[in-house]
Design a protein that fits this description.
- The structure holds 2 protein chains of 2 kinds.
- By secondary structure, chain A is an all-alpha fold.
- Chain A is built from 20 helices and no strands.
- The longest helix of chain A has 53 residues.
- Chain B has a single domain, classed as Rossmann fold, CATH 3.40.50.
- Chain B contains 5 helices and 5 strands; from the N terminus they run E-H-E-H-E-H-E-H-E-H.
- The chains are: A mainly alpha, B alpha/beta.
- At the A-B interface, helix 3, helix 4 and helix 20 of A face helix 1, helix 3 and helix 5 of B.
């Protein structure tokens, strides 16, 4: 009898609990739905107002901001983040004034000084292109690769006169680079100044393999001004013990070593006999980009000595070199030549008629 | 005489800004949010005076639309300005090789876009 009573009470308690949880869940869902809907409506209205003021003769940001609620100010920050990434010029300057009026700039500077949400603060400073003293940027300790890249990005975006040198040193002081760090390093070194060349000349042999490969890949994509005498560190890397480093070094030679003085320093014969397929493939690419009789002769030699493992890469290189004739290639290469031709035809059709998914 | 400008960009904000800045006076703007709709319009309407294309769009990319424009007899001479976040040297070169008249990278200055459009419409 007592056991039955306990069972009934327990079941009742569980049922009540379940009903309570259900009601609470439903209530929370309705509340969240309401808040989100309100937030979206607020943002839509704010977007229209921001848009009109942005292109008006006088945006009167201060007069507008005092009329906004806290929720509206929060949503305005989201919009500012979006617009600052998409615009530059006059409109960017106006958005910067708005960010300053709403307190974003002061807050970002305070947070950088205190080390509070530092990456978010650095992101705002970079978006606003705010000039900040490098010592101040790093005073609270740049403890992670992401933060160092963030500080470098602020210097780059604000056109600091020493951005390239200081930013590069900040970024390559990491054991490995983040995607954001790679992108920032490329921006800092793409152009007349290329402090990476100096760092590589001084330290390439002491760097960790992963960092060295990443830096070489960045350098491959950079446009470099005068490289005279600044690539002397490169040939030794072509015989590095790591195949990844050798392949990345060949990539740098392919992009920047086309000058006659560098071409003569490269031992193509040794590279063509490299045990690593990735290295040989990049050497074929390199030779196809050098429009010289010597590079054509090396390609013909490679075709005469290589096997089918390299067939596709060799066929591509052979066909894109202006001084080699594909009709004279050996019979074993013919299927690979056909494959490259078919692949190029598909590529042309794709470009014209959008055969593939269209994102590129 | 009104100049018609066709723009295609899948980013609402960019599309709104470009439409706002380029409309008015002697210019009218027809905007699309993807490359396929833009091409279908171009194929079936009178040639516009200028086209502004993003590259990375669903349906057809801006480069695919550009190639079709250059292949079509009625559209081949229409100026096309690419407005894209693809800003590396090889991207710009590829854009011009495919027939772009001008190339602007994002983030962009709306005033600069207006100036470039105006110079092409003179």
């Amino acid at each position: 009898m007592i056991a039955n009573t306990v069972l009934i009470w327990t079941a009742g308690a569980i049922a009540l609990l379940a009903i309570g949880v259900g009601v609470l869940t439903l209530g929370a869902s309705v509340w969240i739905y309401y808040i989100q809907g309100r937030s979206e409506r607020v943002q839509t209205d704010l977007r229209l107002e921001l848009f009109e003021r942005l292109f008006a003769d006088d945006p009167d940001w201060n007069g507008w901001i005092v009329t906004l609620s806290r929720v509206e100010r929060d949503r305005l920050r989201v919009l500012l983040d979006e617009y600052l990434r998409k615009l530059r010029g006059t409109e960017h300057s106006r958005l910067r004034e708005l960010a300053s009026a709403i307190g974003i700039l002061d807050q970002a500077m305070r947070n950088v000084d205190r080390g509070r949400h530092p990456f978010r603060a650095l992101t705002w400073l970079a978006l606003l292109k705010e000039p900040v003293d490098p010592d101040r940027l790093t005073s609270s300790g740049m403890t992670t690769p992401q933060l160092r890249a963030g500080a470098a990005r602020v210097l780059y975006e604000s056109d600091h006169p020493d951005a390239s040198a200081i930013g590069t040193n900040l970024i390559v002081d990491s054991e490995s680079l983040t995607a954001f760090g790679l992108d920032t390093l490329y921006r800092l070194n793409n152009g007349i100044e290329t402090p990476l060349l100096t760092r590589l000349a001084e330290e390439a042999d002491s760097w960790d393999e992963g960092l060295l490969v990443q830096v070489l890949i960045v350098l491959r994509y950079c446009n470099i001004g005068d490289v005279h005498g600044r690539l002397d560190w490169l040939p030794p890397l072509l015989t590095h013990t790591s195949p990844r480093v050798r392949a990345a070094a060949v990539g740098v030679v392919e992009r920047h070593g086309w000058r006659g003085a560098y071409q003569s320093q490269i031992d193509i014969g040794t590279l063509l006999e490299d045990s690593e397929v990735a290295v040989r493939r990049d050497v074929y690419l390199l030779l196809s980009s050098w429009n010289t009789d010597r590079s054509a002769a090396w390609l013909r030699w490679a075709i005469a000595t290589a096997d089918e493992t390299d067939g596709l890469a060799l066929a591509r290189a052979h066909m894109s070199h202006p001084r080699t004739d594909v009709t004279n290639s050996p019979a074993w290469l013919a299927p690979f030549v056909d494959w490259v031709l078919a692949d190029e035809a598909v590529g042309r059709r794709r470009r014209m008629w959008g055969v593939s998914a269209a994102w590129s | 005489m009104t100049h018609e400008i066709v723009i295609a960009d899948d980013d609402d904000t960019i599309r709104d800004i470009v439409e706002f800045k380029l409309s008015g006076g002697d210019r009218s703007v027809t905007a699309f949010e993807n490359g396929r709709e833009c091409w279908e319009y171009l194929e079936s309407s009178d040639p516009p005076d200028l086209i502004v294309l993003d590259i990375m769009m669903p349906g057809l990319t801006g480069l695919q639309v550009l190639e079709r424009v250059r292949e079509a007899d009625s559209l081949s001479s229409v100026p096309v300005i690419m407005l894209t976040s693809r800003g590396r040297e090889e991207h710009v070169v590829e854009g011009f090789e495919r027939g772009a008249t001008d190339y602007m990278t994002k983030p962009f200055s709306p005033n600069e876009l207006v100036a470039r459009v105006s110079s092409r419409l003179r």
